[in-house]
Amino acid sequence: MILGVRFVAAFAEGSAPTVEWLFLDLNSYFASVEQQERPELRGRPIGIVPLVTEHTCCIAVSYEAKAYGVKTGVSLEDAKRLCPHIQLVEARPKLYVEYHHRIVEAVNSCIPVTNVMSVDEMACRLMGRERALGNATTIRSTSNSRSAP
Questions:
Q1: Known catalytic membership, residue 105
Q2: Residue-range definition of the domain harbouring residue 73
């Protein structure tokens, strides 16, 4: 599993397509980590909550929950209305940070991480031959496979 990794390439102008930056954005990050750690949650709509109480909101949701219209920041009341069978999971920040370090290490094994913007976003500046579109695509694929737990 690649934890919903989505790379965004920033293209430079010129005759041959080149890429200056690769941006790594881990979609549905907290929910994807929970599904990785707990196989029984895979394929099911889940909402990550700061603590289990009726008066909070989802701080992350799985792709399966998003299919029902549940979005990050939605109240539990609305989440349950949109998706009555959503499973709520209490957030485990330390676990998400552990995964973050593993993913940064995996990406760093392919290309240096230039900037970490948050626990689920980072940027890599490409140089030299890395900037050719085909090479940048290879780096992306290699990083995806190495970031899989």
A1: no
A2: 29-93
